[in-house]
Amino acid sequence: MTKDFYEEFQEGSSKLWKQKIQVDLKGADYNETLVWKTNEGIDVKPFYHADEFTSFLSGPKSKASNWRIAEEIDVTSITAANSKALNATAKGAEAIIFNLLDDSLDLSKLVSGIDFKKVEVIINCQCLSKRLKEQVNTLQEANNDTISIHCDIIHNLAKSGNWHKDLKIDHSYFEAIIENTKSLSVDLTTYQNAGATMIQQLAYGLAHANEYLNHFDNDSYNELKKDLDVTFTVAVGANYFFEIAKIRALRKLWSLVAQEYNVKTNCTIVAKPSKRNKTIYDYNVNMLRTTTECMSAILGGADIVSNMPYDALYHKSNDFGDRIARNQLLILKHESYFNKVNNPAEGAYYIESLTEQLAEKALKLFKDIEANGGFLAQLKNGKIQQK
What is the model's pTM? Predict the structure, then answer.
């Protein structure tokens, strides 16, 4: 009986669906009416079907149950930053990102009292000096590599237009820190916040990372390269499904590049909401935007998600704004169960198509950047900024 039931229905295909849609359009142009032409150069169709795919995206997978709720803290005072971190971890934060703005501060006091078995700690070095290098090395040795140190000198150049000191000195300190921490960080947030398309963000991120890999691409660094843990920090905008695909494409693209250099193909992705689309006029809108942006980050496979307080653009950091931002993530994780399903976007035809197209276009742009002198050269001569 079951067999007879299914034989009553014709098996669907993308061709049949399109024919049915064209009938329903009653003469209206299919492409003009229903196909969305995006800024990424990707045409979004009204439907996607299994027969359009020979296989789904393969590559390193993330585990949804492992994503961590992070709190980001700008360090201007050791005592205040440490107190804020302890308060955040007591109220649900699973990772702390310290943005270090001053190299004279005592890093050992900064992390005092934090339970490293339960809380992941990242120190994002936004300054660079001999003293900082020595402090970082001492801190790493004392804490048995339980703290991640992010030192991204190219990000500082892209954001400010200047090295911390100069190219030679920055690279010498950078090398010393990387050799000790075995941790390479690539911050893509400036590109998104400056208005880069998703394809540009991905290509610039790869080219940015490639500059570091080229720097360490000699025999004396072979062992270091094998041990490198690579972290990408990305800003997530409001284009919900595209942002999911962007993060998935980044993981796939990094795997391709890493194989060429014989480094780890897995990477850590830290995601945070974009600053670009936030408003000073309606904080409720900011809450809605940051919520959906965090959802995109989680569904895309980010390992660490740090939310942005709704009033970050027009208020100094405050307990209420921080609490709301943290609670948004707590609700997504513990009440909406965004930590229960691994790779939930996998197999969704629309997202698979977007991921594949973003990756292909970004890889093409990356190759173009490398063929024309590399990322640093184009950054210095202004070509990256002009794009």
Answer: 0.93
